[in-house]
C-alpha cells in the first residue's frame, strides 16, 4: 500500500527486492479477492518470469519493479485476455498491446488482468461473464464501470497502479466510485494498438493511481506516438512531472451549469461543496459557463459508440479464434449460435442498436446527425477553453449504487455516465479526483482541460490534491461473514 | 432497337511488396496456407490498420494514367458483412470519397475512337480464400471449408466505369487496354487467370434512346474470353425476355464456365446492406499537389502515346499492336531504334526472328537476356552485306539459347560473306558436274531450275555467300555450257 515513490525508495534502500514487493501485493490480492473479484487472472508463472527478466535490467528504469494491473481488454502476450466475455474465454494473445510493451520495457511487472463489463460495455462492472466486481468501500455496491476491476484493485491496495480504458467514462466513473484517481487522456495521446476496440473514435487507455504524481509517471511512459496506431498523435509529449507543485494561482475554472445541479443527487452535491472552498484556497477564479449541446451528448454517444461497436465486434464470428458453437449445422447457424451464446445481453443490445443506426435509410438520421452534433460539442468545448483553463464537474451524478439496482433498467444505467460522456465525444482529457466521502462512500470530482494539455490538467489536479488528499485512506477488509 | 449498355467493375491487385494495412508480404501464390499472415491481416482483437503509402501512390498513378481527377481529400470506410474469408467482419474500402474520379480510356474499336468514362477508382483490401472440402465446390455444398488468409489484406484498386460500353467486344477491348495500362505503370500483374485482375459486368438492354433497361450484374468472369462470352450470352438472354414482352429481373448472376451460361445468384431483395461508415481507425487521406506532381513525373509513356509514335514511324496498325501489347518488347524496340534508324526493318527482325522464337519456346520477351546493341550490330552486318541473312538467323538463335556473343561466333567460325569469286566458282563447277539432270533441264529452257542450283551452292558455302553473287556466277557458268 504505497505510492510509486515509496516503492522506489524501498528498492533504493534495499529494504526489499522486487520479488518481495510483488509478493506483498499478491498477499493483498489473496486477502481481498474473495470479497471484491477485481481480477480475472493472476499469471503467477508469468510474473516469476517477468521478475527474472528484470534482473538483467537497470534499476533506474522509471517503473522498475512496480506491479501494475491491466484491464482485461488490453492484450498481454501469452497471458489470457478475455474482455470478460465468453466469446474470448480462452483467448491467449500473440502480442503485447503497445502500452503493455512500454510498461514492461520500463521495468513494470504485470501482476494481473482485471475485471470489466463485457467488452467495456457498462457502468457498473456487473456485465462481466465471470461475475461482477464489488466496491471495496461497500461490497454490496458496484465499483462503477467498465474498468471496475482496475479501479477496485487500486482502491483496495492490491496494486499501486493499473490501466483501464475509457470510452464514455469507464476510467473516471469507477475511479470516483472507489475513491482513487483515474485519468482519461486526450484521444490520440495513448496508443490503442492492442486495446480491444469497443468504439474506436472514443476509446482511450489511461491510468488509475492514488497520487497525481503516480498518474503522471505512468502517463509519461504510455503516452506518445505509436506507428502502429494511425490515430495516435505524432507530436512530442511534454514532461508531465515538471508542472507538479507549481502554482495554479489565478487559473480560471469553469463550472458548466449543464453538469451541476440538474440530475445530480443531493449527496453528491453536498460532498462536492467542500471543493469550492478548496478552489478559493488554491487561488483560482470560478466562472459559470454554458455548454448547451451537452443536452444531446447521451443520445449522440449511444449512436456513435454502438455503431462502431457493431462493426468492431463483427470479427468474433467463431472462425479464427475464441468461442465457437460446434453444434451448428451450417455457416449461418454457426454465426448465430456462436454470437448468440458467446456475447452477453448488454453487448448484444448494443450490437443491435448500432447495426440499426447504420442501416440503409437510417444512417443519415442517426449516425450522420450524431457526428454533426458531436462536432458541435467539440466546438463548444474549444470555445469554452478560450475562456477557462479547467472545467470542473461531478464525475458521477450519483453515489456508488447497489448491485442489481440499475442493471435491469439500461436507461438508468446509461444516465450514470452523463458527466463523463461529453469528454469522450470532444476528445479532451479529464481526470477524476477523490473529493470526499458521503457515509463512507467515495465521491469524485472531474477536471477537464483542452486537447493535449495533460501537463496543465495534472498540475491543477496535483494542486487540488495538496488540499484534498485521500491517497492514504484505504477501505477496511470486510468481515468474513459478509462474503 | 436492342442496344446493350454495359458497365464494368474491375478489381486489380496492386503489386506492392507488402499488404495494404500490415507489413506482411503480398506473396500468396503456391504458398502453404496462412504463412504470410499476422494478427493485423487476420483481424485479431486489438489490431489497427496502418496504410501502405506505396499502395496509395500506385492507386494515384492508376488515376493519373486513366485521366482521373485525384481527390485532395479522401477517406476510408468500412463495408460490413459476414463471410469466413473476411477476417474483421468488414472490409476497409472507400465509399463516398474515392481517391480518383471522372477519368476515361480511349479505345480503338474497328478503326474508330471509343471513349469509355471511368466513374471512380478506390483503394480497398482483398479478402482471404476459401477451400471447400467435400462434394461441391461451393460453401453450401461442401462438407467443410478451410480459410487461407495469405491473400487477405493485399491492396486492390476497384475501377468502376460509366455504362459507356455497348458490345461484348468493346468490354473485352476495354479490359485489355486497362490491363495494358496497369502493366505499363508496373502497378499490377493484371493476370486474370491467377485472379490478380477480376471483372464484374453490369448489363442492361436499351430499347429506346434515353431509356435504360433493368440491369443484371455478372460475376465470376475469369478471362477476357469468358467476359465476352458471358456478355454475349446475357445480351441474348435479356433480348429474348424483352421479345417475349416480359421484364428483366434486377439480380446478380454467376457465369457458369462449364455450361457457358449465366445463372441467378441472388435477387435485388436479397442484396446486402453493407452499412458503410467512415473507418475510425484511419485518418483521412490527403494528397498534396507536390505528391501528385511527383507521381505524374514517374508515369512512363503509356500505350496510347506509344501507338501514336509508332504509327508516325509508318508501321502498320497490326505491327504497332504487336509492339505496344508487350511493354518489354516495346521498350527494347525503342532502345534499338535509338541506334538503328530503320523502324520497319527493326520491327521485321523482332517480329519474325524474336517472336517466333518466343512462341516456339513458350517464353515472354522479358524472359530474354538480349542486348540491343549486339542485336542492332547483327542487323547492320546484314544490311552491309557483311553476313547473309541465314547466317544472321542462325547466330541469333545461338545467342538466344546459349547466350553466345553473335559477333564472336561470326569471327571465330569465319561466317562473314564469302566474296572470293574463284572459291565460289570452284563450288559452282562442282555443283554443275554433280547435278547433270538439273543442268539438262536448264538447257531445255526450264530456267527456274536455277533456284535449286543456287540452293546447292549456298549449302556448300554454309549460307555465307550472297545470293545475288551466286546467282550471277552460276548463270555465267551455265551460259558457258
Ligand atoms: Zn499481416
TrEMBL record, chain A:
Keywords tagged on the record: ATP-binding, Ligase, Nucleotide-binding, Protein biosynthesis, Transferase
One cellular-component annotation, GO: glutamyl-tRNA(Gln) amidotransferase complex
Uppermost EC category: ligase
EC number of the protein: 6.3.5.7
Any one GO biological process: translation
Amidase domain residues: 20-458
Annotated InterPro entries: Amidase, Amidase_CS, Amidase_dom, AS_sf, GatA
Active-site residues, Swiss-Prot/TrEMBL: 71 (charge relay system), 146 (charge relay system), 170 (acyl-ester intermediate)
Entry's Gene Ontology molecular function annotations: ATP binding; glutaminyl-tRNA synthase (glutamine-hydrolyzing) activity; transferase activity
Entry-linked Pfam families: Amidase
HAMAP family per the UniProt record, alphabetical: GatA (MF_00120)
Family: Belongs to the amidase family. GatA subfamily.
Protein task: Allows the formation of correctly charged Gln-tRNA(Gln) through the transamidation of misacylated Glu-tRNA(Gln) in organisms which lack glutaminyl-tRNA synthetase. The reaction takes place in the presence of glutamine and ATP through an activated gamma-phospho-Glu-tRNA(Gln).
Assembly notes: Heterotrimer of A, B and C subunits.
Record-linked PANTHER family: GLUTAMYL-TRNA(GLN) AMIDOTRANSFERASE SUBUNIT A (PTHR11895:SF151), TRANSAMIDASE (PTHR11895)
Protein name as it appears in the record: Glutamyl-tRNA(Gln) amidotransferase subunit A
Species this chain originates from: Dictyoglomus thermophilum
Upper lineage: Bacteria, Pseudomonadati, Dictyoglomota, Dictyoglomia, Dictyoglomales
TrEMBL record, chain B:
Enzyme class: ligase
Key words, A-Z: ATP-binding, Ligase, Nucleotide-binding, Protein biosynthesis, Transferase
PROSITE patterns, per database record: GATB
Positions of the Asn/Gln amidotransferase domain: 331-478
Single GO biological process annotation from the record: glutaminyl-tRNAGln biosynthesis via transamidation
NCBIfam families linked to this entry: gatB, PRK05477.1-2, PRK05477.1-4
Family assignment from sequence similarity: Belongs to the GatB/GatE family. GatB subfamily.
Protein name: Aspartyl/glutamyl-tRNA(Asn/Gln) amidotransferase subunit B
Protein source organism: Dictyoglomus thermophilum
Lineage per the UniProt record: Bacteria, Pseudomonadati, Dictyoglomota, Dictyoglomia, Dictyoglomales
Amino acid at each position: 500500500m504505497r505510492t510509486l515513490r515509496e516503492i522506489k525508495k524501498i528498492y533504493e534502500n534495499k529494504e526489499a527486492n522486487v520479488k518481495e514487493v510483488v509478493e506483498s501485493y499478491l498477499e493483498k490480492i489473496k486477502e481481498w479477492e474473495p470479497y471484491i473479484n477485481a481480477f480475472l487472472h493472476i499469471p503467477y508463472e508469468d510474473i516469476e518470469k517477468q521478475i527474472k527478466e528484470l534482473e538483467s535490467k537497470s534499476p533506474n528504469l522509471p517503473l522498475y519493479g512496480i506491479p501494475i494491473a491491466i484491464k482485461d481488454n488490453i492484450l498481454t502476450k501469452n497471458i489470457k485476455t478475455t474482455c470478460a466475455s465468453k466469446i474470448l474465454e480462452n483467448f491467449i494473445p500473440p502480442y503485447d498491446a503497445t502500452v503493455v510493451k512500454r510498461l514492461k520495457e520500463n521495468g513494470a511487472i504485470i501482476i494481473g488482468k482485471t475485471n470489466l463489463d463485457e467488452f467495456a460495455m457498462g457502468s457498473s462492472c456487473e456485465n462481466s461473464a465471470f461475475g461482477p466486481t464489488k466496491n471495496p468501500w461497500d461490497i454490496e455496491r458496484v465499483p462503477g464501470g467498465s474498468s471496475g476491476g482496475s479501479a477496485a484493485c487500486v482502491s483496495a491496495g492490491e496494486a499501486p497502479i493499473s490501466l483501464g480504458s475509457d470510452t464514455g467514462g469507464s476510467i473516471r466513473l469507477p475511479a470516483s466510485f472507489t475513491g482513487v484517481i483515474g485519468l482519461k487522456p486526450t484521444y490520440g495521446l495513448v496508443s490503442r494498438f492492442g486495446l480491444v476496440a469497443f468504439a474506436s473514435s472514443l476509446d482511450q487507455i489511461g491510468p488509475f493511481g492514488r497520487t497525481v504524481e503516480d498518474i503522471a509517471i505512468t502517463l509519461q511512459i504510455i503516452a506518445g506516438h505509436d506507428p502502429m496506431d494511425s490515430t495516435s498523435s505524432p507530436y512530442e509529449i511534454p514532461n508531465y512531472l515538471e508542472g507538479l507543485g507549481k502554482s495554479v494561482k489565478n487559473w480560471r475554472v469553469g463550472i458548466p451549469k449543464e453538469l451541476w445541479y440538474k440530475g445530480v443527487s443531493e449527496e453528491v452535491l453536498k460532498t462536492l461543496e467542500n471543493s469550492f472552498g478548496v478552489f478559493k484556497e488554491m487561488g483560482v477564479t470560478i466562472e459559470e459557463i454554458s455548454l448547451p449541446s451537452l443536452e444531446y451528448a447521451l443520445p449522440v454517444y449511444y449512436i456513435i459508440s454502438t455503431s462502431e461497436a457493431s462493426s468492431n465486434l463483427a470479427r468474433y464470428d467463431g472462425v479464427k479464434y475464441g468461442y465457437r458453437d460446434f453444434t451448428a449445422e451450417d455457416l449461418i447457424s454457426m454465426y448465430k449460435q456462436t454470437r448468440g451464446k458467446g456475447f452477453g445481453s448488454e453487448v448484444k443490445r448494443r450490437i443491435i442498436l448500432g447495426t440499426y443506426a447504420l442501416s440503409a435509410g437510417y444512417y443519415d438520421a442517426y449516425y450522420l446527425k450524431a457526428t454533426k452534433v458531436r462536432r458541435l460539442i467539440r466546438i463548444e468545448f474549444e470555445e469554452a477553453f478560450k475562456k477557462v483553463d479547467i472545467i470542473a464537474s461531478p464525475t458521477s451524478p450519483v453515489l456508488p449504487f447497489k448491485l442489481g439496482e440499475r442493471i435491469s433498467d439500461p436507461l438508468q444505467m446509461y444516465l450514470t455516465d452523463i458527466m463523463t460522456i461529453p469528454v469522450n465525444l470532444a476528445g479532451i482529457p479529464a481526470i477524476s479526483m477523490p473529493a470526499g466521502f458521503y457515509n463512507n462512500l467515495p465521491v469524485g470530482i472531474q477536471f477537464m482541460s483542452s486537447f493535449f494539455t495533460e501537463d496543465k490538467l495534472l498540475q491543477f489536479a496535483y494542486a487540488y490534491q495538496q488540499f484534498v488528499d485521500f491517497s492514504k485512506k484505504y477501505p477496511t477488509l470486510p468481515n468474513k461473514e459478509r462474503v | 432497337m436492342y442496344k446493350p449498355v454495359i458497365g464494368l467493375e474491375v478489381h486489380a491487385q496492386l503489386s506492392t511488396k507488402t499488404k495494404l494495412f500490415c507489413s506482411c508480404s503480398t506473396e500468396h501464390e503456391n504458398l502453404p496456407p496462412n504463412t504470410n499472415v499476422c494478427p493485423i491481416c487476420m483481424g485479431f482483437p486489438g489490431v489497427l490498420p496502418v496504410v501502405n503509402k506505396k499502395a496509395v501512390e500506385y492507386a494515384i498513378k492508376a488515376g493519373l494514367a486513366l485521366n482521373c481527377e485525384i481527390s485532395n481529400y479522401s477517406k476510408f470506410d468500412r463495408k460490413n458483412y459476414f463471410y469466413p474469408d473476411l477476417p474483421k467482419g468488414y472490409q476497409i474500402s472507400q465509399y463516398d470519397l474515392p481517391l480518383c474520379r471522372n477519368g476515361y480510356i480511349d479505345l480503338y474499336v474497328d478503326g474508330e475512337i471509343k471513349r469509355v468514362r471511368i466513374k471512380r477508382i478506390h483503394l480497398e483490401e482483398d479478402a482471404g480464400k476459401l477451400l471447400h472440402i467435400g462434394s461441391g465446390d461451393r460453401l453450401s455444398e461442401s462438407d467443410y471449408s478451410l480459410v487461407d488468409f495469405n491473400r487477405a489484406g493485399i491492396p486492390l484498386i476497384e475501377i468502376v466505369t460509366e455504362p459507356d460500353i455497348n458490345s461484348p467486344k468493346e468490354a473485352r477491348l476495354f479490359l485489355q487496354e486497362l490491363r495494358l495500362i496497369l502493366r505499363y505503370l508496373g502497378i499490377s500483374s493484371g493476370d486474370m487467370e491467377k485472379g490478380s485482375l477480376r471483372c464484374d459486368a453490369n448489363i442492361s438492354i436499351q430499347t429506346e434512346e434515353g431509356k435504360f433497361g433493368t440491369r443484371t450484374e455478372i460475376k465470376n468472369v475469369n478471362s477476357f474470353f469468358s467476359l465476352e462470352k458471358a456478355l454475349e450470352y446475357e445480351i441474348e438472354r435479356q433480348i429474348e425476355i424483352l421479345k417475349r414482352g416480359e421484364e428483366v429481373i434486377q439480380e446478380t448472376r454467376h457465369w457458369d464456365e462449364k455450361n457457358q451460361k449465366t445463372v441467378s445468384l441472388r435477387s435485388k431483395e436479397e442484396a446486402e446492406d453493407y452499412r458503410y461508415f467512415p473507418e475510425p481507425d484511419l485518418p483521412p487521406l490527403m494528397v498534396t499537389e507536390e505528391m501528385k506532381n511527383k507521381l505524374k513525373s514517374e508515369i512512363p509513356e503509356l500505350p496510347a502515346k506509344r501507338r501514336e509514335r509508332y504509327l508516325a514511324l509508318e508501321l502498320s496498325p497490326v505491327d504497332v499492336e504487336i509492339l505496344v501489347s508487350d511493354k518489354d518488347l516495346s521498350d527494347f524496340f525503342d532502345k534499338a531504334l535509338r541506334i538503328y534508324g530503320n523502324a520497319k526493318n527493326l520491327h521485321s527482325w523482332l517480329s519474325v526472328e524474336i517472336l517466333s522464337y518466343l512462341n516456339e519456346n513458350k517464353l515472354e520477351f522479358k524472359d530474354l537476356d538480349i542486348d540491343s546493341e549486339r542485336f542492332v550490330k547483327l542487323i547492320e552486318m546484314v544490311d552491309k552485306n557483311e553476313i547473309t541473312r541465314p547466317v544472321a538467323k542462325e547466330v541469333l538463335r545461338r545467342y538466344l539459347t546459349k547466350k553466345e556473343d553473335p559477333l564472336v561466333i561470326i569471327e571465330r567460325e569465319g561466317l562473314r560473306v564469302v566474296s572470293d569469286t574463284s572459291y565460289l566458282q570452284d563450288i559452282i563447277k562442282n555443283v554443275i558436274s554433280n547435278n547433270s539432270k538439273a543442268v539438262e533441264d536448264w538447257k531445255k529452257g526450264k530456267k527456274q531450275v536455277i533456284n535449286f542450283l543456287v540452293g546447292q551452292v549456298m549449302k556448300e558455302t554454309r549460307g555465307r555467300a550472297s545470293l545475288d553473287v551466286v546467282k550471277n556466277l552460276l548463270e555465267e557458268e551455265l551460259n558457258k555450257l
